[in-house]
Amino acid sequence: MIHRSTSRKIFEIVNYLLFILFCISIIFPFINAIAISLSSYDALEQGKVGLWPKQFTLESYKNLALSKQFLRTLLNTVFLTVVNTALVIVLSLAAGYAMSHKHLLGRGYLFIYLIIPMYFSGGLIPTYLLINGLGMNNTYWALILPAVVNIFYIIVFRNQINQLPRELMESAEIDGAGEARILFHIIVPLVLPMAMAFVVFSAVSYWNEWFGVLIYIRDRSMWTLQFQVRDILINSALVDSTTQKALAGQEPKVHPENLKMAALLLTILPIIAVYPFVQKYFIHGQLVGAVKG
């Protein structure tokens, strides 16, 4: 049995206590949000809700489900998440493979060309002027095209492919395989764990997208779910007038806090549901930044 010193035991006790407090600080507000979203108008008005719902009701979720605007933003978010994630992974993988190819002329200069904007960007105003000048303002393209090039992903894919045995690609070339066949039938299976980790990172990032909508989008029908939730948190109401009128005259009443907490929970629910299935890729992704180039 390993002997532990008194100082070591004190350190472990303090460490465990800090982690317990940290977990409580995360879990309790989440439980409180669930309780608020499931409590009645009167219970919230009287301040009776703590960690358990009072006068259980699903009216807030019902009204969100019946809101055409909320459902439209959900569809927009799913569409943008799928399209942007697919584009950024495919383009980054293809660019990383091209930059690792021995036949690419000037790949060292191309690498420097990519590194510079990774550290020095034009900024928000030039980007907005570019998007506006290209006529993409208030279109889905403003939320798709600026996000499809991820230099970090390209560099990591390039480094990973450089570490693969060259004999694999050379033997495929001798057998007459083209570049696309080599990429998708040889390279992709070997870097799939890393690619899946980037899929997780990208999907979470695009699911939480709202700033691009704030800058480029004016049409409410093109809002994303996160921006819709932001509007609910600020205005304490759903945005479509039809639903607001229905809420104003209905019984039982729906408290603004009901809508806020229900909207927040519906926003994070898909991520919570998917995370257990992709956790291994997420953990693997913690190490991708340390890939030796």
From TrEMBL:
Q: Which InterPro entries match?
A: MetI-like, MetI-like_sf
Presence of the UniProt keyword Transmembrane in the record:
yes
Q: Does the keyword Cell membrane apply?
A: yes
Protein location? Cell membrane
Q: Which CDD domains match?
A: TM_PBP2 (cd06261)
What range(s) does the ABC transmembrane type-1 domain occupy? 74-278
Superkingdom in the source lineage = Bacteria
**A Pfam cross-reference name:** BPD_transp_1
Q: Give GO cellular component annotations, separated by semicolons.
A: plasma membrane
Q: How does it sit in the membrane?
A: Multi-pass membrane protein
Annotated GO biological processes are: transmembrane transport
Q: Which UniProt keywords apply?
A: Cell membrane, Membrane, Transmembrane, Transmembrane helix, Transport
Q: Which residues cross the membrane?
A: 16-38, 74-98, 110-134, 140-161, 182-207, 261-278
Family named by the database record: Belongs to the binding-protein-dependent transport system permease family.
Q: What is this protein called?
A: Carbohydrate ABC transporter permease
Taxonomic source organism: Paenibacillus contaminans
